[in-house]
Protein 1
Amino acid sequence: MNWDVVWNNFDYFLIGAYPDGPLGGLAMSILLALGGIFGAFWVGLLFGLMRMSKRWWLRWPAMVYIEIVRGTPLLMVIFWFYFLAPILLGTTLPEATSALIAFIVFTSAYIAEIVRAGVQGLPKGQTEAARGSGLSHCQAMLYVILPQSLRNMIPSFVNQFVSLTKDTSLAYIIGVNELTRTATQVNNRTLTAPTEIFITIAVMYFIICYVLTEISRKLERQMSRYQARG
Amino acid sequence: MNYEFDWKLVLTGEYGQWILDGLVVTLKLSGISIVFALLVGTIIAVFRLTKFKPLEWFALAYTEFFRNTPLLIQMFFWYFGSYSVLPESVNNWLYNHNFEFTAGVISLTIYTSAFIAEEIRSGIFAIPKTQLESSRACGLSFIQSMVHVILPQAFRIIIPPLISQFLNLIKNSSLAMTIGVMELTYMARQIESYSFHGFEAFTVSTLIYISISLIVSFMVTQYNKYFLRTINY
């Protein structure tokens, strides 16, 4: 085993060539995941609410969007934005930007389903009581339903964030210099220690994802105590 | 926007054949991996429930580790990194037998089996403890009561989540393009680089993936509606 290769390149795995060059490595992966989940939350919330609307012209587009995105592999979505952007916009987007857009689009469809499940999981009495108190549908949503259901959704959001963190590895394919790409770069340069390099990278992803998964489990246990019932 | 659409190019002739070949490889890769993942997943789930601690720990470590690392990294590990951990004869055999495909099957199997194991475990937990106790009291061994009493009931409950894992597997099989398996996404990418008609190639292959998903989820909904009979205890 040749672990020297790993140790010599460890800071490259963590932050890429920064501060002498562009940011990369694990820091880039985390940035992509954070940006992706932030964007996907708002887009997903919008589509999730549209999906539950009583008006067909709001419901159907959301349904089509969710079904199409969930039926497509993430790799395909990434290629779409990477190869489509030049055709539509006339200019090329930076790789990281087009990967980020693909992550937002892909994850938002799953967030939309989480939002829907969260809102529908809330007891019907909450909506009825809010409407009965004279709030409009929008007000009831905004002040009564969403605050409660969004809190219940936090564990699912954390799980989705874990998935997204793993999924950022796919940005490697279009050339974003994140953790997976730094690993393949070092591997291609040295050619002597693929086993060690990929084990190290796997462990790095594992630590982040495992800690987050544990947090989500803990939150889930805590939250089950404060549920509105009936 | 000065892009000329040429759908005929992608749907017929050489490129059409590529798409078709890619689809066949995708289905083969996913089909084989599904069977193995189901087997391995069941074994791991049963390990989690045994009273024998080392097996339980192994199963726990297996599910936690493989669920929390990206599939792409696992694929790279099996493809590039398995050389130094496997014995020489196994390596030689692998290199002579379409190693890309095998590495794809191995990584998809292991990754998906970790998720399937969790689904099966929750299915087994949904079966009341009395079922196991009474089958043990009837004289069945632990293995026998698992095989004949618990698992048949558990599988009935978890068929819908299992199917969605299978769908994930089919979508994840697109990652095998990175290690050179010529499946659907690989072919679409190849058409893009040969002809610059990526738009058409990606549309066709995306539609294929979506129709697989839609057909399967439609069938699951029908199953839930008409055939899902769970026992109420």
Note: Chain A has one domain: 4-226.
Protein 2
Amino acid sequence: MSILIDKNTRVAVLGMTGRQGSFHTRLMREEGTNVVAGVVPGKGGQNFEGIPVYDTILEARLRQDVNACVVFVPAPAAAQSIMNAVDAGIEVISAITDGIPIHDMLKVMETLKGTHTRLIGPNTPGLITPKQAKLGIMPSRAYKPGCIAVMSRSGSLSYEVCDELSKANLGQTTVVGIGGDRIPGTTFADLLPLFEADPETKGIVIIGEIGGVDEERAAAIIKESCLKPVVAIIAGESAPLGKAMGHASAIITQGKGTFKSKIDAFQNAGVKVAHTPKCLVQTLFGLLQEKSRESANHRCGARQDT
Amino acid sequence: MDLMEHQAKEIFLQYGIPVPKGMVLYHESALADALSTIGVDKFGVVKAQVLTGGRGEVGGIKVVDSLTQAREAVRAILGMRIKGLTVEKVLVEEKLDIKNEYFIGITIDPESLPALLISPKGGRDIEQIAKEFPTAIGKYLIRLKNGLPSFEVIELAKSLGLHHTLWGGLVDIAGKLYKAFCEKEATLIEVNPLVETEGGKLIAADGLLNVDDNALFRHSEFSQLRKELREMVLKDKGVDYIDLGDGEVGLLCAGAGMTMLTMDLVVQLGAKARCFIDMSHGVNPVGFTAALEVLASEPGVRYVLVNMFGGLTRMDEVAKSMLQAIESMGAKFPKPMVIRLQGTNVDEGQRIMREAGYEVYSELEEVMATLKKILEVAR
């Protein structure tokens, strides 16, 4: 099991014939992704390495039964591409594009309201269910199938953490990059219930950073309704106030989004917070062992009762 | 991109938001001109024009009563250092008869909607208002479809206990701010304080405007401003550079999250990062030359830490670009540099660096341990 995407997901690549689109289409297929269509306006009717290319996402959906797409369209046109995919009824959109104007994203968010589409990103490495489907650009060698869910605002840091997890033999169910922009289509809070409900996911990793209130909201949900062990790491402890740290969203303003407020929220929700990727993996390992001992004890107890 | 106060005020004027009469000076010799523009009797305030907050506390804003005082103020403020930045220009303005000071601004809320904020406690920054008078900030979330209806502004003003004689003026200014916010593609537009004069007029005594970097490609009106900013010039070469003010370690990383974590790890070693460079978009000789030149020339940077885990970024390209850049700068990089490369095409990248005589690490722990040793020896 996994969330959002698996080997049956029928994927279209928006901007397939561009430099990034073509390079990563190949890598996504190597991971096992079922890429069934490309969308490049003006190139409809052509094919890219055996994959049919269409002018519009609607056409791709109608002809190839596409239910997910990856967006590599350059920033000035990306928002329009995303809105077209929403209108075409695509269920999962992974928007890799970096640098989409924020006022364009305001329009995208308005379009998304009331639809069934889940937008991941933008400005994200995408999402991956290892060896089944990769809708993004992450380095495959850092990932392997397993029972850990990972969600991250940062791309680079998620590679680092997943690499450590994989080395410790903790593979992943699904890894989702929510992206570093001020307006993410999907938040940690949106993903938590999906991972909590996924029977294969045994533990959850959150890779957060300063700025915004996403970690705080996630903490509230964990406290309320999450039974699985959750560990977190937060980047930006030493960031100065009022400066955006590379990600537009990583900025402390109006006293909100500080490192401390996030740590406090997590600790209050029983989430262990680690300072380095290695520590995070060790902490998670400990929690999983504890959990399995607990359930073993539980089973013994049940036997004694009968 | 942040605009300076006088630049924000020029935009306010374009949208019909009243601002004090004023003039920008680069040298005290232009003071006489400013005086005649503003009017001798209304003179004045002298304000440092610099892209950072808190200039008032360090003497960057002075109220003056005479030409002599004005000259002294201009002399004192020009060239002053505020949070690591040198003041190169001042704004000289008329003095206002202040009856009340308010806050009004529009930003992007975590709800992914523009939010209008109003407070009767203007004149201090919004963080301070939030802390001292948490109930004195009113917020209205703007739906793009509906825009900013005047009755919503009135409801907000009313809920904050603002007198009804102000409502019309606030509706007018909120509407103009929202128009500017949308048309200039701002992420933040703020008037603080919005001064109510003894005569009952509302005037924007100070202003903040941040326009979305990602939207600048369709705003040629800002292209000149852009060229004046070092961070923007570097950004055009794919180098995301952030000046952190103080510290001794220059960071050269790929990916914002990785750079932030590296910055935190440096602090855990008892040191501080002087600057933050994310190379994700600049892995080529031009980008690396620009980045390494900054690191070489910035006197605060005494050590350089390179830490990359590439996904999209390929390590062989990093190695080649970096070596080419170093060569173009003259054979050897002038400061101690520790390097860790990991991720896509790492084997090839490490080989290239080693052949050129550089030590390269694979693990984060290793490179941090080496940096620690270097820092300890230096101390």
Note: The domain at 98-218 of chain B is CATH 3.30.470.20 (D-amino Acid Aminotransferase; Chain A, domain 1).
